Amino acid sequence: MVGYLLPHPPVLIPEIGRGEEKKCQATLDALEKIADEIAEYKPEVIVIISPHAPVFTDAFFLNDKPEIGGSLARWGVYGIEFRFKNNLEIVQDIAKMCSQEGLTVGFVSDKIQKRYGVSRDLDHGALVPLYFITKKYKDFELIHTSYCMLDDIKLYKYGMILRRAIEKQGKRGLIVASGDLSHKLSYDGPYGFAKEGPDFDRLLVELLQSSNPHALYDIDPELSEKAAECGFRSIKVLLGSFESYSIESKVYSYEGPFGVGYCVAAFYQKGEASSSLLEEIVRKREERLKKIRENEDEYIRLARESLEYYVKHRRYLDHIPDYVTERMLRERAGVFVSIKKDGNLRGCIGTIFPTQENIAKEIIRNAVAAGFHDPRFEEVTEDELDSLVYDVDILSPPEKVNSKDQLDPKKYGVIVRKGTRQGLLLPDLEGVDTVEEQLKIACRKAGIDYESEDFEIERFTVERHK
């Protein structure tokens, strides 16, 4: 088995870049070398994992069209089209194996495609790598898939399944993890700058250069989230295809001329591994969560135990644990409870003003609400409980603001009001760096037109427990 990490900015394609692609010459040279390698390897099936195919929260998109195609028309380039035969036997085997492993595959029917505008055509995450591959080699079937927002273990298992399904058909396979690295490398880039951007890219590239891709699973999920990358999960799926084998990784190029990191890397199978990476991922995850649990304060512990009790008994915690402090029993305040899973938000619900007789009961109610009543997410299930991490924010009483000069998005949260419409935004949120950004988001949540409507502003502070 061979695998590659390939970037996918459309600007790399000369017909689209029209000279701008020359700013990525190292990437172009590396892609040509990879295409030569692939032509020599002669894969019968190429799997491409694209972040820009349909991405579901809890299911892996798998393209089941008999023929998969796409073009460069959306970039104003006509006459360049791609058509690939899909291997439906492998697709069916992937779906069956996923079901056996408790994973879900999501297909997109013609009806859903028409109704919701979800396309099964090749997206740019697939088109850009395939443009360069097919310059040198075209004799292959294509499996078009994506990752989903599930945890590392499930991403890894999906990679294992992709390989098993290809090998079951006796095919020579190759997997492409399509993805760019951080989108926040420079202030003049399209996504702005975050210090975590260069840090994430540097760490990932160093690990690949040292042929230590297994250590990618030790990267803090919050670092990758703040770096705003789109390729990390693709890599994690790819690595699953090497389970039980040692891996040699090689970086062909890395650069970020447009404020986005482009890395071209290869993964080669090198004999049997001395241990299972899957078992190592599971062990490290358990150790990380155990450490988090051991360092929980009373606020976090109460939020966690409240939700766990509700999930298992379908009723609110009916007693106040003895570790709850006097302050939590005596004082009243608005409380927000946030739940994360593998660095991704899993639910967040809160109250601006206290609705219960004390902070402890406010936490109990809002922890359950975050797990069950956040309309953006499905209800938390019992098998997820061990992987959830909690934040608790205790809000100060809001105070009216007479001038935007009294606001600071790092220090103060905001509440905007217009009649019965109201929107709230907590302070110190990733990507919210200016007062204007903060107010616009709060107004959008309230249904207030920031540009044309007058509205009242209040500010508050939070006492954050995490």
Could you provide a short overview of the structure?
This protein is of the alpha+beta class and 466 residues long. It contains 14 helices and 18 strands.
How many helical elements? 14
Mean pLDDT: 94
Give the C-alpha Rg.
Answer: 24 Å
Poorly predicted regions are none
* Share of helical residues: 25-40%
The total beta strand count reads 18
Sheet of most strands: 6 strands, mixed
Q: Give the N-terminus to C-terminus distance in angstroms.
A: 42 Å
Spatially, the strands of the biggest sheet line up as: 7-2-8-1-10-9
Strand content: 15-25%
Tell the overall outline.
globular
Report the structural category: alpha+beta
Polypeptide structure, described:
The chain starts with a strand and ends with a strand. Helix content is 35%, strand content 22%. The longest helix is centred in the middle third of the chain and has 18 residues, at 277-294. The chain has 14 helices and 18 strands. The strands form five sheets. The protein has a six-stranded mixed β-sheet with strand order 7-2-8-1-10-9. The chain is α+β, with helices and mostly antiparallel strands and 466 residues long. The protein has helices at residues 14-17, 25-41, 88-100, 110-116, 124-133, 152-168, 196-209, 221-227, 232-240, 277-294, 298-313, 326-330, 359-372, 435-446; strands at residues 2-6, 45-49, 60-61, 67-71, 81-85, 105-106, 141-145, 173-178, 245-255, 262-272, 335-341, 344-350, 388-395, 399-400, 413-418, 421-425, 456-460, 462-465. Strand 11 (335-341) and strand 12 form a beta hairpin. The model has no long low-confidence stretch (mean pLDDT 94).
